Amino acid sequence: MAQRSKITRLENAYTKQIQAQQHQNKSILTKQRKKRAAIIIGAFLLVCLVLSTEIVHAKLSLGQTQTEIVGRQQKLKTTKATNQKLQEHVKLLNNKTYLENLIRSKYYYSKSGETIYSLPSDKASDVTAK
User: Which of 28, 88, 104, 130 ranks highest by number of CB atoms within 10 Å?
Assistant: First the structure.
């Protein structure tokens, strides 16, 4: 069997007032703690929101940068190919025999005593037509 306590409480106005004051103090502390917790949680959520927007912004910026890099790499590749073709053309132009053949075929330049006949089936461009 459960033993009853030998201490009894006084039920007068003073003890009721003290209990009411203690209850009021306890409820005030509880409200303050809840308010403080809400402020801390709100600040934490605000920091999380700011950081998440920064992360999203960084991801978008990274995607744009990656797209730009791909575009620039393609442009670099085409520029290198063009440069290679031009360098080959310069090498050919430095070759004396190629240069002579080019001038003779394109501009109908002839050596002294040589006659050039243009046939309709020739693919060479006409110098006078522009």
Answer: 104
